[in-house]
Amino acid sequence: MDSEKRKEKLRAMFSKVVGPLGYKFSPDTELVDFLLEQEVNIEKEKGSPFCPCQGLTGEREHDMKLVCPCIPFHREHYDAMKRCWCGLYVHKDIEDPDSLMQISLQEFLESKK
Amino acid sequence: MNVESRWILAIRVDELPDGEKTALLLEGNKVLLLRKEGVFFAISNKCPHMECPLSKGTLEDYVIKCGCHDWKFDIRNGEFLDAIEIKVPVYETKVMDGSVFVNLEGAGI
Amino acid sequence: MKKVVLYTLSTCPWCMRAKKFFREHDIPFEYVDYDKADDKTKRDIKEDCLAHGSEMSFPFVKIGDDVVVGYNPDKYSKLMGL
C-alpha cells in the first residue's frame, strides 16, 4: 500500500476510535497531515503507528500504550489539556488548537493534588 | 423499531472445545466464536482499533487481548477495558440440536 | 547564558518548534534526536526523562538546572530571562 493510501486508511480507522472518546482530528490540517505521515513512516519502520512525539523504550507494555490513538491510556492527562500529546486529536469543542498547551505529566499530576 | 433476528448456523457444539476460539465467516461477516465455561460468545473478529483479527489474540478469563497492540476486550459485552465507550460488536448466540447459532442482526453496519 | 540542551524526536513537530524558538532568539543549544541516537545515548536520555517523571514525552528541554517538558515558549522565555 502506498503511503498516501495508508495515511487515509489510518485517518479512517482512528477517526472511529477517537469519536466515542470525545475527540476529533485537530482543525490544524497541516499538522494532522504531517503527523499522519510520520505515523505511516514509523509503522513502516517499527511495525506500528506509534506517537511521533513520545519515545519508545523497547518494553512492550510501555510502547503499546503509545500506539496511536493512545488517548485511552492517557485519558485524564489528555482531557486536562483537551488534546493528545502530539496534538493530532483535540476535544470536539475545540476550534482553535493553538490555544492548547502541552502540559507535562508531572505538572498535571501536581495540579491534581 | 422492527428488529429482525438473523440466526445463522455457525458450527456444531462439539467442534469447539471449552476455552477455545475460532474465526468464522458468516454471510460475509468476520465473526469470532468463543466457548467459555460452556457458554458460547460471538464477537466481531475485527479489532476496533486497527481491524486486526482478534482470533490471533489470547483469551484469559473473559478477556480477549488483541495480538497486534494488546487492546483488551470483554467478550461478554464487547467493552474495551481501557475505555468502555469503545466496543467490539457482540452477537447473540444460542445452541439448538447440537449446533451453535449466531444472531447477525445489526452486523455489517 | 544558561546552557540549553534539547532531547527531541525527529518525527515530532513540537520538537521542531522548540528548536526554532531557540534559533530565533539566537540562543545556542545542543540537541539529540532520541529516535536516531545510539543505544547508550538512548539509555541516558531515558533515565533523564524518567527522573523528571516525563514518561518519555518530547521535547524535553533543559535550561540550566531547570527542565521544561513540552513546547512552551513562555516558560522558555522566563527561564532564559527574555
Short synopsis of the structure:
Chain A has helices at 3-18, 29-46, 60-63, 75-81, 105-112; strands at 23-25, 89-91. Chain A has 113 residues and is mainly alpha-helical.
Explain what the structure shows:
The complex is a heterotrimer of chains A (113), B (109) and C (82). Chain A is mainly α and 113 residues long. Helix content of chain A is 47%, strand content 5%. The termini of chain A are far apart. In chain A, 35% of the residues are buried. By secondary structure, chain B is mainly beta. Chain B has one domain (7-103): Rieske Iron-sulfur Protein, CATH 2.102.10. In chain B, the strands form two sheets. In chain B, strands 1-9-8-4-3-2 form a six-stranded antiparallel sheet, with no helix packed on it. In chain B, strands 5-6-7 form a three-stranded antiparallel sheet, with no helix packed on it. In chain B, a hairpin with a 2-residue loop joins β5 and β6. The model of chain B has no long low-confidence stretch (mean pLDDT 94). By secondary structure, chain C is of the alpha+beta class. Chain C has one domain: Glutaredoxin. Chain C has a four-stranded mixed sheet with strand order 2-1-3-4, with helices on one face. Chain C is globular, with a radius of gyration of 12 Å. Classes of the chains: A mainly alpha (113), B mainly beta (109), C alpha+beta (82). The A-B interface holds A 13, 16-17, 20-21, 48, 60-61, 64, 67, 71-73, 75 and B 48-51, 68-70, 80, 82-83, 85-86.
Give structural attributes:
heterotrimer, B: 109 residues, mainly beta, Rieske Iron-sulfur Protein, six-stranded antiparallel beta sheet, three-stranded antiparallel beta sheet, globular, C: 82 residues, alpha+beta, Glutaredoxin, four-stranded mixed beta sheet, 4 strands
Large-scale geometry of chain A: globular
The structural domain count of chain C equals 1
What would the CATH topology of chain C be? Glutaredoxin
Give the number of domains of chain A.
1
Largest binding interface between chains: A-C, 25 and 23 residues
As laid out across the biggest beta sheet of chain A, the strand order is 1-2
User: What class, by secondary structure content of chain A?
Assistant: mainly alpha
Helix-strand pattern of chain C: EHEHEEH
H/I helix tally of chain A: 5
Which regions of chain A contain 5 or more consecutive residues with pLDDT less than 50? Answer: none
Q: Averaged pLDDT of chain A, please?
A: 96
SSE-based structural type of chain C: alpha+beta
Number of DSSP E strands of chain A: 2
**CATH topology-level fold name of chain A:** Ferredoxin Thioredoxin Reductase
Radius of gyration of chain C: 12 Å
**Which architecture name of chain A does CATH use?**
Alpha-Beta Complex
Under CATH, the homologous superfamily of chain C reads: Glutaredoxin
